[in-house]
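Lab notebook page, bench 4
Experiment: in silico fold of construct C2
Operator: M.H.
Input chain length: 160 residues
Purpose: comparison with the prior construct
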Amino acid sequence: MKSTFCKLTAILLLLVTLIGSLPVVVLAADAPVLWVSPLEGEPLEERPISSVKWWYDDDDAVYYLFLPTACNPESLQLWLDNALFCAVDGYTVDNGSAVALLTVGAHTVTINDTDYPVVVMQSANIGTMYITTESGSMNYIHKAKGNKESGAMKMLDAEG
């Protein structure tokens, strides 16, 4: 009996040690999200369907903004989810504000005191299709062939 108790205690201590040494993973549910949309005239009150969400590349550990051909990178409206503070290359910007800071190339975007490397890229001479889903992402649709979700779509030719 004493031998079994000692073995169980040793196994329990080993498990606690192993679990305690695992890295803590923060769920991305409340992670900040950056969007940009082409600024056409006065800034809008709500994020339009033509907004582009940043995309994170796990291999490079970099966020990318892929701007369509017709979008002027020097005339964007910046949108934030789950963010109290944002700066682009050291310049403070507000949610929904017009910015000329996210030109094509590499930038540092600071959101809630965390720096994120962002590379802005722009396509050339191709059309653009924007898809907005009810959930805000395509994850559920891509998860299984039969999955469906309501949403909206906007298509533009290369000239916008």
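Observations: Residues 39 and 76 are 5 Å apart (CA to CA). The helical segments are 2-21, 139-143.
Next step: discuss at group meeting.
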